[in-house]
Amino acid sequence: MLVVQKYGGTSVGTLERIESVASRVAKARDEGKDLVIVVSAMSGETNKLIEYAHYFSSNPSKREMDMLLSSGERVTAALLAIALNEMGHSAIALTGRQAGITTDNTHTYARIETIETSRLKTEINNGNIVIVAGFQGINKNGEVTTLGRGGSDLSAVALAGALNADACEIYSDVDGIYTTDPRIEPKAKKLDVISYEEMLELSSLGAKVLQNRSVELAKKMGVKIVAKSSFSDNDGTVITELDKQGDNMEEVLVSGVALDRNQARVSLRGVTDRPGIAAEIFSKLANENINVDMIIQNASENKTTNLGFTVPQNEIEDAKKVINSFDHDIESADYDESVVKVSIVGVGMKSHSGVAATAFSALAKSGINIEMISTSEIKVSMIIDEKYGELAVRVLHEVYGLDK
Amino acid sequence: MLVVQKYGGTSVGTLERIESVASRVAKARDEGKDLVIVVSAMSGETNKLIEYAHYFSSNPSKREMDMLLSSGERVTAALLAIALNEMGHSAIALTGRQAGITTDNTHTYARIETIETSRLKTEINNGNIVIVAGFQGINKNGEVTTLGRGGSDLSAVALAGALNADACEIYSDVDGIYTTDPRIEPKAKKLDVISYEEMLELSSLGAKVLQNRSVELAKKMGVKIVAKSSFSDNDGTVITELDKQGDNMEEVLVSGVALDRNQARVSLRGVTDRPGIAAEIFSKLANENINVDMIIQNASENKTTNLGFTVPQNEIEDAKKVINSFDHDIESADYDESVVKVSIVGVGMKSHSGVAATAFSALAKSGINIEMISTSEIKVSMIIDEKYGELAVRVLHEVYGLDK
Predict the structure, then answer these.
(1) Percent residues over pLDDT 90 in chain A
(2) What digits encode the pLDDT tens for the residues A70-114?
(3) Predicted model pTM
(4) Which positions ≥6 away from B318 have C-beta within 8 Å?
(5) How far apart are CA A346 and CA A337, in angstroms?
(6) Among B341, B323, B337, B325, CA closest to B269
């Protein structure tokens, strides 16, 4: 049985923590598992190095940043190998290059292209626990590249896929995926299992647990992820392919409720209703790297239309500039930063009507006005006044029976 | 004009220091020089990583240590490249691997075997200042190796040799090689020039300035070294091939006086005078990794002989154990840790008799007893009571006119 385990920054944040991870790895080894361990930099290290770089430049070369940032994971990998050796287990630390990870040329945000597994397989066959420095690879020219924030998750999933591992265990300081944020709703329950699609939609909940790109890659490669805590022995949550239309889960409609506080609403009134105007506005927003989330357009009346969308709060000023440049085409614009997005997510709602209606009526009963609505096959998102955000989460959590 | 510059740990010990090094490099660039810059880890970093490793193991795997320790130089290299870019100079940081440095397989103390210069030459031809992470390379199997303490000096000299550079400037916090330690003799003078051989013999003086292996390599490859301070604009000392029997330096007999406090004397009396006994003793000392420095054997009398040698002070206990194992062959052993070695060094003394005699008589006049003497072509070393160490340095410094 081959298992890939990944330990994030807080799991290896101190020497004591690395020792504790070593014990955990040794235990899995004693159970007879073949192991590939992916590690992040000790928590704080990457931020320290970024600060160092920013001392010299507000816009450092991305190639040099990769050279700089790839050092932290190597330190953790070597230390973990040393700790395991001392416990009597043969272990070897490999850089991204030595682990055969080749990426494209996009420095600081590279994509893994291939994993040449021969060295990894040789080390495993030689009885070694293989420790891989996460977050990094090299491109075809031998340049060091990194995979972006949370990239060690990606390293782990890609290695698990390439090695056809039985599971990819992602360890953090959270013991799995919850039906909602337990700080908001203490009745939140840890999920035993969740589908890739739901996990992706719950990203605002799961951001701390799992990086989205890794979930996408796991789905693509069919890698079963187990999200676990390195601070406990709890079971964690399995993230896998799941068809909730199957018998055993027929009654589960909604898996979780997510709250996203980082939203600002833009409402445009009296937009000239000529072909291509919406495309022009959103192209220009995209060119300015503004991430538009929800978009609502109402039916037009009197040759004008109303258009609403949301952006992250720290991009609202940039969005205003773009909107102001359309002053010939827009009658008035209204901006509201005191909104939040509350979402319900569940594969089960695909085949059941009325799931959205249940949400709308539950919020209405609690006197919560819904400003914008957007739905997908497995998600319903609603923009509401921020002061009702936590209440809405609790109301929705209860109405779908997630605390049961 | 191609110059290799190497900046040691204290020269890049803080972000401010790295900025200052960047300015220095930029200035040399503005003078039209092609530049390859070799950097050490920020001071303290390597020791910190060694401490980390020793938290887990008193005897960590050397391969893993190399993975661990090679990270510090990469950080400095990337930061220096970022700083230079910000100043408007194109610069690129390369790892030992990317700089083409291939070593043997001796982890933590590898020897450079070849330098494949094509990447370096391409970067130089493209107008880049090339920053190389010192102290490291890879072996033929792609494993990361390091060159031992002070290994960045070695990287710099090897690169200068391979690239046929016009000079190799080694920057530290000392502005050159002095006739003796200025803390002992304030009249000590900085030397403008010194031969490789003298530099090697003065290693106990120059240890902080230049690593011995680098001087040996420079001599072998004909690389002219300039030892300079990164904290001043002083000229520094040139270390090069020098024949002091030539006209211009005929009168210079002695270049410097060195004091080595890390000496312990072992005196063996009544050693059985049979063939091979000395070889047996010194082989066994070598097997225990005890570094024997001076060895004196007196002519034998009455089938026994007296044997004296010195070892580093921290190896005296190990030496005692070895000597005790010869109790059938040795009448008595005497150990003295309160001794120092004072040496005069100079290529000029090769062709001049009486240089040693001058030293002996000068020390005698000051009432300093010489316990052991050892001479080579360019060095006379004397073991004396440690309480006279500094006095001896001043007496010898004066008698050879080094303060003139």
Answers:
(1) 72
(2) 999 999 999 999 999 999 999 999 999 999 999 999 999 999 999
(3) 0.85
(4) B288, B289, B290
(5) 28
(6) B323
- Chain B partners within 8 Å of A63 (Cβ): 92
CB A53 within 8 A of CB A68: yes
| Alpha helices for A1-95 (secondary structure H) | 15-30, 45-56, 62-69, 71-86
Please report the pLDDT score of residue A215 as a whole number: 92
pLDDT, tens only, A23-47: 999 999 999 999 999 999 999 999 9
Kindly report the number of other CB atoms within 10 A of residue A19's CB atom: 18
Distances from the Cα of A257 to the Cαs of A177, A192, A198, A366, A398, in angstroms?
11, 16, 11, 17, 10
Which token pair is A133? Answer: 């420095």
- Domains of chain A in start order, with CATH, are 2-242 (3.40.1160.10), 256-399 (3.30.2130.10)
Q: Which residues does chain B have within 8 Å of residue A64's beta carbon, measured at their own beta carbons? A: 78, 81-82, 85, 92-93
Q: With contacts defined as CB-CB under 8 Å, which chain A residues touch B65?
A: 78, 82
Say yes or no for a CB contact (<8 Å) between A142 and B74: no
Question: Are B53 and A15 an interchain contact pair (Cβ–Cβ within 8 Å)?
Answer: no
Shortest CA gap B362–chain A (Å): 55
Determine what percent of chain B is predicted with pLDDT higher than 70.
95
CA dihedral in degrees (B299, B302, B304, B309; nearest 10)?
Answer: -30
> Model confidence over A345-382: pLDDT tens digits?
988 787 777 888 899 999 999 999 998 888 888 888 99
What mean pLDDT value characterizes chain A?
Answer: 91
- Is B120 an 8 Å CB contact of chain A? no
Can you tell me the distance from the alpha carbon of A42 to that of A24, in angstroms, rounded to the nearest whole number? Answer: 17
Give the one of A56, A61, A78 whose C-beta lies nearest to B67's C-beta: A78
Q: Does the interface ipTM go beyond 0.90? A: no
Provide the 10 A C-beta neighbour count for residue A113.
14
CA A341: distance to chain centroid? 17
User: How far from each other are the two terminal CA atoms of chain A, in whole angstroms?
Assistant: 35
Which tens digit of pLDDT belongs to each residue from A116-160? 999 999 999 999 999 999 999 999 999 999 999 889 999 999 999
- Is the Cβ–Cβ distance between A70 and A96 less than 8 Å? yes
Q: What are the residue ranges in chain B where pLDDT is below 50?
A: 206-207, 245, 247-250
> For B46, which residue in chain A has the nearest alpha carbon?
A75
Asked if the Cβ–Cβ distance from A74 to B67 is below 8 Å, we say: yes
DSSP string of A280-315, one letter each residue: HHHHHHHHTT-----EEEPPPBTTEEEEEEEE-GGG
CA distance A79 to B52: 7
**Is the CB of A78 less than 8 angstroms away from the CB of B56?**
no
pLDDT at position B279, please?
86
B297 close to B374: Cβ distance less than 8 angstroms: no
CA distance A355 to B315: 80
Contact A67 B74 (CB under 8 A): yes
Q: Outline where B130-211 has alpha helix (H).
A: 151-162, 196-201, 203-206
pLDDT digits (tens, 9 = 90+) for A301-319: 677 888 889 999 999 999 9
* CA–CA separation, B192 and B179 (whole Å): 10
Contact B144, B152 (CB under 8 A): no
Give yes or no for a contact between A133 and A70, defined as CB atoms under 8 angstroms apart. Answer: yes
